[in-house]
Structure formats: C-alpha cells, structure tokens
TrEMBL record:
<dbReference type="InterPro" id="IPR042045">
    <property type="entry name" value="EXOC6/Sec15_C_dom1"/>
</dbReference>
<dbReference type="GO" id="GO:0090522">
    <property type="term" value="P:vesicle tethering involved in exocytosis"/>
</dbReference>
<protein>
    <submittedName>
        <fullName>Exocyst complex component 6</fullName>
    </submittedName>
</protein>
<feature type="domain" description="Exocyst complex subunit EXOC6/Sec15 C-terminal">
    <location>
        <begin position="90"/>
        <end position="375"/>
    </location>
</feature>
<keyword id="KW-0813">Transport</keyword>
<dbReference type="GO" id="GO:0000145">
    <property type="term" value="C:exocyst"/>
</dbReference>
<keyword id="KW-0268">Exocytosis</keyword>
<dbReference type="GO" id="GO:0006886">
    <property type="term" value="P:intracellular protein transport"/>
</dbReference>
<dbReference type="Pfam" id="PF04091">
    <property type="entry name" value="Sec15_C"/>
</dbReference>
<comment type="similarity">
    <text>Belongs to the SEC15 family.</text>
</comment>
<dbReference type="InterPro" id="IPR042044">
    <property type="entry name" value="EXOC6PINT-1/Sec15/Tip20_C_dom2"/>
</dbReference>
<dbReference type="InterPro" id="IPR046361">
    <property type="entry name" value="EXOC6/Sec15_C"/>
</dbReference>
<dbReference type="GO" id="GO:0005886">
    <property type="term" value="C:plasma membrane"/>
</dbReference>
<dbReference type="InterPro" id="IPR007225">
    <property type="entry name" value="EXOC6/Sec15"/>
</dbReference>
<dbReference type="GO" id="GO:0006893">
    <property type="term" value="P:Golgi to plasma membrane transport"/>
</dbReference>
C-alpha cells in the first residue's frame, strides 16, 4: 500500500513539475511558448491522466488507499489550478471515484457486520450497576422509564450486537465524510452524499447481513425472538442517525432537499423475515414430535391420559411461548395460531392416513384424549 501511494505521489509530482516549468517559461520568455500551446498540452495530458486514474481506481479494493489517492488528486488539482490550468474534469473524476470508494466501504462494513452478528450471544445485555448502564447508553440511544425504575442488576432488552451495529454505522458515516472533505462542495451537497451512502449501507449491506443471519441453521427460535427485538431498537435509533448527520453537516433536517434515511424499511423487512422463520421453525419442531408419535391403532383401551409425545410437544410449546412474551402481541398471537393450525392438520392427516386399515375403539379414545389435551392448551393462549 505504501509503495502504491508513493508511486502515485511521484506520478503527480513529475506532472506538476513539468507544467510548473512550462508556466514559468510562458511568463519569463517572449514567444518561446504560448498560452494556447500550454492549454492544448494540458488538455491532452489531462485526458491521459484521467484515463489512468479511472483504470487504477477501479481495481482498488482498499478504502484507505482510495482515500489516499483522492487526497493526492485534490492537492494535484489545487496546485495546477493555482497556475491557471482548468481542473474541473479532475473534480468530476473524483465524483466517480467517490462511488468506487463507497463500494469499498460497503464491502468492508459487510464483513464488520457479519463479525458482529457471529459474535453475538442473542441474549439481553446484563448491567450490574449504574456505571455499566451508562457505558451502554453512551454507545446507543436507549430510553425506558420502566426499566429505569428497576434496581440493579437488570437487563436491557437488546443484545450486544445492537450498540455495536449502531457504532459501526456512525463510523461508516465518518469514513464516508472523509472523501467529501476538500472537494469544494457545499454543506448541502455533502449532507446529501452522506445520506445517500448511509442509505446504501442500511438498505443493501446491513439488510443483506440481517437476511442471511435469519436464514442460518444455528439461529433458533430464541435467537429469532431476540433479532426481532434488536431490529425494533435499531429502527427507533434511525432518528438519532439523522441528527448525527445533521450535526456533522450543519444542515437542518427540515430542509426541502434533505434525503431521508430508509433504515425503517430495512429493519421492518428483517423483522418480517424473522417472524416468517419463527413460524417455519415452529412447524418443523411440531413435525419432529409428530414423527415420534407411536399409536397402537389396535389397542383395546386407552392409557387414560394424553400420549407422552404430545405432552412433550405441549411442554415445548409452553416454554417457547414464554420466550414470545417479549414479542409484539400480534407476532406471538400469530405464532400460536400457526402452531395450533399446523398441529391440528398434522393430527388429522395421521388419522386419515390411507395406510391405516383399521382403528380400534381404544385407539380412538386415546387419540381423543390427545385432542382434548390440545384443546385445553389452546384455550390457555386464545
């Protein structure tokens, strides 16, 4: 990287040196060179310089190196502009390179987000005392008057990835800002650039990481519930990111042309995906219990109590729905209805199985006891 930067520095220094000498000759001699000659020479050189820089920057995947290149181009352009050479095309090129820079940032932050999600334990953050609590809320804007009333130790509803993701979004905004500096653009334009690049981070990079996380095999029901809670808090934090950008650029959010952050849709989409995955995993778990059901369809009389597999299933559902109490009411209710409907359909299919040739009265009574147990359970959650 250092050698590459030094190579660019030598490249620009040699070009600057050449045109400074040409400009000096133009001003201290009579008729040796003309302004028309130096302008034509500069335009020809500029076309080749832009072609070289465009090619080289397109292959660069290191955001720090792209930033170094941008800084060298700015110094190069400002220097030659001081000698009267037109440099607008170089600043136009910088806007192209800015898009490349943002792409390298998005790629880098995708890896950072993945690492954060991998390291998360998907459990509420425990805080033992006031000092630990202040450390967390200094990193993430969290307010809960009910939680404030509780004594220590206590737990914050989100898991550790939430403040870490929030911090990294702010770091991305700072990194994106670095490229906008010295481009001779207005605060409004810089504000617009920052919001657009942050929107890409939220709607493309973070959204993709969340969607991939939700689909991972090791993410179970408890983790999915925590992800739904996490995305709710990240969504609420979007307004603070809006303020953060406004404070950097000194552009009010009420300005007509101010772009909004689209984080809300990112986190809503992730929640919907997590909810769908909860329903799917619940049904898969029910299927596992149903598969171990071993009815003796010829039994002379019932056991007098619900089948063991069904009691295990109901105990599983009961403990699972205890976790769901942290979810919004509609999600928990839909999950319960979905589970009951799936269980009902599975029991019906078992009874109407075409391979089942005969059923004794004892087996029907046993099956009926199981259905009654299901009804009793569903009444508790209806």
């Amino acid at each position: 990287k250092h050698e590459t930067v030094e190579g660019y520095r030598r490249y620009f220094s040699q070009i600057v040196g050449f045109f400074v000498v040409e400009d000096h000759i133009l001003h201290v001699t009579q008729g040796l060179v003309t302004r028309t000659y130096t302008d034509e020479l500069w335009n020809m050189a500029l076309s080749k310089i832009i072609a070289v820089l465009r090619t080289h920057s397109s292959y660069c995947n290191d955001p720090d190196l792209v930033l170094e290149l941008k800084n060298l181009i700015v110094v190069f352009a400002d220097t030659l502009q001081g000698y009267g050479f037109p440099v607008n095309r170089l600043f136009d090129l910088l806007f192209e390179i800015r898009d490349q820079y943002n792409e390298t940032l998005l790629k880098k932050w995708s890896g950072l987000f993945r690492d954060i999600f991998e390291a998360d334990n998907y459990s509420p953050i425990p805080v033992a005392n006031e000092e630990e609590y202040k450390i967390v809320i200094s990193k993430f804007p969290f307010q809960d008057s009910e939680l404030d009333k509780q004594s220590f130790p206590k737990k914050l509803p989100m898991s550790q990835s939430v403040p870490q993701i929030y911090i990294q979004v702010k770091e991305f905004i700072y990194a994106s800002l670095k490229f906008s500096e010295s481009l001779h653009r207005s605060s409004t334009e810089i504000d617009d650039m920052l919001r657009k690049s942050t929107n890409l981070l939220l709607t493309r990079t973070l959204s993709s990481c969340l969607q991939n996380l939700i689909k991972k095999p090791h993410i179970g029901l408890t983790e999915l519930v925590q992800i739904i809670i996490n995305t709710t808090h990240l969504e609420l934090a979007c307004k603070y990111l809006e303020d953060f950008i406004s404070n950097i650029t000194n552009i009010s959010q009420v300005t007509v042309h101010t772009a909004r952050l689209y984080g809300l849709s990112t986190f809503k989409d992730a929640r919907h995906a997590a909810e769908g995955e909860i329903y799917t995993k619940l049904n898969q778990k029910i299927d596992e219990f149903i598969q171990i059901a071993d009815y003796d369809w010829t039994m002379s009389e019932s056991d007098g109590r619900a089948s063991g597999y069904l009691m295990d299933l109901i105990n599983f559902l009961r403990s699972t729905f205890q976790v769901f109490t942290h979810l919004p009411g509609k999600v928990a209710q839909t999950a319960c209805m979905s589970a009951c409907q799936h269980l009902s359909t599975s029991l019906m299919q078992m009874l109407l199985d075409t391979e089942l040739k005969q059923i004794s009265m004892g087996a029907i009574q046993q099956f009926n006891l199981d259905v009654i147990q299901c009804e009793l359970y569903s009444c508790c959650y209806s």
